[in-house]
Design goal:
Layout lengths: L1 H6 L5 H32 L5 H50 L2 H6 L2 H8 L1 H34 L1 H8 L2 H38 L1 H6 L3 H53 L5 H10 L1 H31 L20 E9 L5 E10 L4 E5 L6 H7 L8 E6 L2 E2 L5 H6 L1 E5 L9 H6 L7 H10 L3 H6 L17 H15 L3 E5 L7 H15 L3 E5 L11 E6 L2 E6 L1 H7 L2 H14 L1
Helix pairs in contact: 2-3, 2-6, 2-11, 3-6, 5-8, 6-7, 6-12, 8-10, 8-12, 10-12, 16-18, 18-19, 20-21
């Protein structure tokens, strides 16, 4: 872990070195005051050299001015170095998140992922800046203080430093508790963020069902866990600080008693004893800095561990020899495919399908039967357990993920639109498209007239998830996006099931236009929309139970015929 953490310093080596040099200079300047104090007490004041007293004082003032400038550099540029490192980690994390498989997002809530991207990395940034700086300054200060105090009185110095092992033992013992407690605190913060993200995203549902009290209850559960986790963390931190502070207080008692005895015995004079008491802060100050640093280290280390947990999650597998194909024709074959989610019971069992180029193939059946799973397997969103899926005779696992997905367009029931302009959302289909191509795609999706009726036209911002649009408008915007992409393979996963009849007719016209000349896989709830499909398959419990044309399946008088008659009676009623 340390090696990976240090790798983020590499692009900032020059700034890091300057920061460390400035820190070293600050540490060395800190030694000057007790040295000047000793000189004045032992020499200048007894000998009444007032001119030298003034010169020493002015020289000390100049050094303090230099230290002020160095501290500004450390605080400003040092923090900026930490921010740049944080930005690089955040960029690496986002890049890696884009490469992770769908299964990762099935198992991790958005709010928890965001917590690792924000608050965790903020603490890592603070550690990146203050960590080396505190360690360097404190280490040098301890060494210099030992050397300097030894020149005043070696036996007294050795007695003081003999207390250091006791401080180390207390620090190590309490640090382990702090680490575990802060890890738990991080998890509770992530849970709060996840609950908050979910509640805010679903605020309209909450208001519609007047369930604000329920959401408050769910949030307070997470909040209570945060309080308990924080209680443990701060209890451990309190034990750490109180224990270590007590040990540092012991240092003062040791100096007072031992020094008094040495002074009483004539082993040290009053001026050196006074200088030693003043100079002992040279030792205690860096010790206290290291004590405070331990809290920051626990925060930063636990944050970096959580960062690495995501970074170490394997990305979507793609063999090195995978082929990048320009454009596919669209002949899709499922050969004895079985698939499951997370190693659980198979969602698909020994499924075989042959979808010809340019043909429309429909999937029907009860919810949970495996229809959407088939749609997810074609673009290789999930791996199959057995069998193979090929397009134009090529196993999809032999194709690069990017080139495979470039050839597939998907229109789902649950449309996701970005909080951006209408133009930008359509352009998501093909980022290098021209304005004329965007307008043409909108016309073919039957939404151009609506867009031009808006005050800002194509520059209209549609809000989070397209909240300012109706369900039908969002669907047509998605269809325009796929028109712009112009893929040879089209997947329609219950694209019109959530729409009213009038809107469905309008959307269906756009979909019929979209399907022309493309291999189309349709998942439909309303069977009237797929009567003209070239072939229809009924899938139940992960198994294909019926397959054929609409007329052939009605003649067979099986599950499809039963579902069709049932819907016909409902629509007639």
């Amino acid at each position: 872990m340390l090696k990976r953490f240090l790798s983020y310093y590499r692009p900032h080596k020059k700034l890091f070195c300057l920061d460390m040099l400035a820190s070293l200079a600050v540490a060395l300047i800190g030694v000057v005051y007790p040295m000047v104090t000793r000189t004045m007490l032992n020499d200048l004041i007894p000998n009444k050299e007032y001119r030298m007293i003034v010169i020493f004082g002015l020289g000390l003032l100049l050094l303090y001015f230099v230290r002020m400038l160095l501290n500004f550099f450390i605080q400003y540029q040092g923090h900026m170095m930490g921010v740049r490192m944080q930005a690089q980690m955040r960029s690496d994390l986002f890049t890696h998140l884009e490469k992770l498989p769908f299964s990762f997002y099935d198992e991790h809530e958005t709010g928890k992922i965001m917590s690792r991207m924000t608050s965790d990395l903020t603490d890592v940034s603070e550690l990146a800046h203050h960590g080396p700086e505190n360690i360097l300054i404190s280490s040098i200060s301890v060494i210099v203080s030992f050397v300097y105090l030894s020149t005043i009185h070696l036996p007294l110095t050795l007695i003081v430093f003999a207390c250091v092992p006791l401080l180390v033992v207390v620090s190590v013992f309490t640090r382990k508790k702090m680490r575990a407690a802060f890890q738990e605190s991080r998890k509770s913060v992530a849970e709060i963020n996840a609950a908050l993200q979910s509640s805010i995203a679903g605020i309209r549902v909450t208001k519609a069902f007047t369930n604000a009290d329920k959401e408050q209850e769910k949030f307070e559960k997470g909040n209570a866990r945060f309080r308990e986790a924080s209680r443990s963390a701060y209890k451990a931190m309190g034990q750490f600080h109180s224990g270590t502070t007590f040990i540092t207080d012991i240092f003062n008692v040791v100096v007072l008693i031992s020094g008094g005895l040495f002074l009483y015995g004539g082993a040290i004079d009053f001026a050196d004893y006074s200088a030693f008491i003043v100079s002992i802060n040279l030792f205690l100050s860096p010790i206290n800095t290291l004590i405070r640093f331990m809290e920051q280290f626990q925060n930063g280390a636990s944050g970096f561990e959580r960062f690495l947990e995501v970074m170490d999650t394997p990305p979507e597998y793609e063999p090195k020899e995978a082929t990048d194909i320009e454009r596919l024709d669209g002949h899709i074959v499922f050969d004895s495919v079985s698939s499951s989610y997370g190693g659980e019971k198979d969602v698909l069992q020994n499924v075989s399908l042959d979808i010809g180029k340019g043909k429309t193939f429909a999937l029907v059946g009860p919810s949970g039967g495996g229809k959407t799973t088939i749609c997810h397997l074609i673009p290789h969103f999930y791996d199959i357990r057995e069998g193979s899926i090929s397009i134009d005779g090529r196993d999809i696992r032999s194709l690069t993920l990017a080139s495979l997905r470039r050839n597939i367009g998907i229109v789902q029931q649950d449309i996701y639109l970005f909080n951006a302009s209408i133009r930008e959302n359509i352009l998501y289909g093909r980022l290098d498209a021209t304005d004329d191509e965007v307008i043409e795609a909108a016309k073919r999706a039957n939404i151009h007239d609506y867009i031009t009726s808006l005050p800002d036209g194509y520059e209209t911002v549609i809000g989070e998830r397209g909240i300012r649009l109706s369900g039908g408008q969002k669907q047509r915007l998605c269809i325009a996006r796929v028109f712009l992409k112009n893929p040879p393979i089209l997947i329609l996963d219950e694209a019109t099931s959530a729409l009213d009849n009038t809107t469905e007719i309008l959307i269906q016209q756009a979909l019929d236009e979209l399907c022309k000349g493309r291999t189309t896989l349709v998942v439909a709830h309303r069977l009237s929309t797929i009567k003209n499909a070239d072939e229809i398959a009924v899938i139940e419990n992960g198994v294909i139970t019926e397959q054929g044309s609409h007329d052939a399946l009605l003649v067979k008088d099986g599950t499809y015929a039963r579902l069709y008659r049932q819907q016909f009676r409902e629509e007639d009623a």
